[in-house]
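Quick start: read one record
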Amino acid sequence: MAQYLLTYHGGAQPESKEARNKHMADWMKWIETLGTAVADSGHPISITKTIASDGKVADSADTNPAHGYSLLSADDINAAAKLLQACPLLKIGGSIEIHETMDM
């Protein structure tokens, strides 16, 4: 079974405390439905830096920054994509990138 790095992008932040709590509850329920496919439910991402090939470190100017990540196991990338269709982030305008990892 392959492993996939999921990077979460964008999405409108719920404005009220009640809406944030509902979104978080929806998120936790969704993660729970994935069961053993979730290798690591991940964390949000905040500060980002970019290290260039010459060693210089700078604030990242990424136009599509990642806001979080998870690790998922699935038979193939299409099966992984199918599991992600119900992700609550998609309901608030966000997107998910699926990156297949390679065994080395």
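The mean pLDDT is 91.
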